[in-house]
Specification:
It is a single chain. By secondary structure, this protein is α/β, with parallel strands linked by helices. β3, α1 and β4 form a beta-alpha-beta unit. α13 runs antiparallel to α14.
């Protein structure tokens, strides 16, 4: 295993972290006796396998159902000084509720302290305010630190780059968990800001949200050869020293195996990556057109500024992935969350585009885009390709 300094925490963080949202029994709390023995045995084996590999950072959240409760049965059996434990608690308007939720997490984990406490899901300015306001959730987290229950405080986010940078620039946090990987590089400016503030950088779900890479499309497999898409994506992320650790949402002990193949390649990234990057770019240009590939994102309004709240950047991004790399299943799964993902995946689909155009001057919101004239038809095309039954986030299921 390789390790990187996790910003100003000074923790030596493994480049892979063991994320805790795929091996738990339920997404909701249940009585301890309801957890099947077989499920707990699998979780225990996964944790022990991670520890044997040197993956000593274990990450979970109050919102991950039985994850904390189940980890509380195995983590106290490991040498405490050799493991790094992170849990996350969502910010609330009432900081007392935040404290109560942390207390529940703390009780389940059965540890004397957690190394990292993340304010979970600072996804918009309102949630940032709940966190930073006097007497708010951050003040509670600081008090927990004084009490010795927490060592370092960070935040996780699925929000816009602008919101993430606001949180970083507050200089109140030691680390950040955010999305950034090959197919979604929007948040690079936030990573740079985190580095300026000497914060740890943890990448959320690079293998699942980064393209369903446990089951990659044939197109991706061919383009990433001789690496698997998963190993390519890991190497792409870790080739940037500003990135410190990638979350591996292992569901069983063998899920680490493919990721381990990247470790001997990290020092050779400048040799290994360029041919694959060139293949991926040329394939996308061939299917999307060079001008669109380089400029599609320019001047697009956020969903808050679009009639009907249609999330134009996300929809066009998913269309691009569908056409460029045949990532239909991934794109459909993400598209189906629009309108039902709350602040975790905000904005609406393009299925109401026709009635929106009747009621509003939709094109006015696209005035700064070089592709304003054709975007409405591309959104309609995306809806035909990706539209279908709405789904819920896993934690809502």
């Amino acid at each position: 295993m390789q390790y990187r300094r996790f910003g100003r925490t000074e923790l030596q963080m493994p480049v892979f972290s063991c994320g805790g949202m795929r091996y738990q029994y339920k997404w909701k709390d249940v009585p301890p006796h309801d957890i099947p023995k077989k499920n707990q045995q699998n979780l225990d084996a996964t944790i022990r396998r991670a520890f044997e590999l040197g993956i000593n950072h274990f990450e979970t959240a109050r919102g991950y159902g039985t994850s904390e409760m189940q980890l509380g049965r195995i983590l106290p059996q490991l040498p405490r000084e050799q493991i790094i434990v992170q849990t996350k608690v969502s910010p609330k308007p009432d900081a007392k509720e935040f404290r109560r939720n942390f207390n529940k997490s703390f009780k389940f984990l059965q540890l004397e302290y957690v190394d990292l406490l993340g304010l979970h899901g600072i996804n918009n300015d309102e949630l940032l305010q709940y966190s930073l306001q006097p007497g708010g959730c951050l003040d509670v987290a600081k008090q927990l630190k004084k009490e010795g229950k927490v060592r370092f405080i960070g935040f996780s986010t699925h929000g816009s780059t602008e919101t993430i940078i606001k949180a970083i620039e507050s200089d109140c946090f030691d680390y950040v968990n955010l999305h950034w990987y090959y197919i979604y590089q929007v948040n690079w400016a936030a990573i740079e800001a985190a580095n300026r503030h000497d914060m740890g950088v943890f990448i959320i779900s690079p293998s699942d949200k980064g393209g369903h890479l446990y089951q990659p499309t044939r197109q991706l497999v061919e383009l990433c050869d001789p690496l698997s898409p998963m190993v390519f994506n890991d190497l792409f992320c870790l080739s940037h020293p500003q990135v410190h650790t990638l979350s591996l949402g292992a569901s069983c002990p063998s899920d680490f195996d493919e990721h381990l193949k990247v470790l001997p390649l990290i020092d050779r990234a400048t040799e290994v990556l360029p041919p694959i990057l060139e293949e991926l770019e040329q394939a996308a240009i061939a299917r999307l057109g060079e001008e669109w590939y380089h400029t599609w994102h320019e001047g697009l309004p956020p969903h808050e500024a679009t009639p009907g709240g249609i999330n134009i950047p996300i929809i066009l991004w998913l269309r691009n992935l569908t056409l460029a790399y045949d990532m239909v299943d991934y794109a459909r799964s993400r598209y189906s969350l629009l309108g039902n993902g709350s602040h975790w995946f905000p904005g609406n689909k393009a299925d109401k585009l026709r009635q929106v155009q009747l009621a509003f001057d939709f094109k006015r919101s696209l005035a700064n885009s070089p592709h304003a004239e054709k975007i409405p038809s591309l959104l309609a095309e995306a809806d035909r390709l990706l539209g279908g039954k709405e789904v819920q986030r896993l934690s809502q299921s």
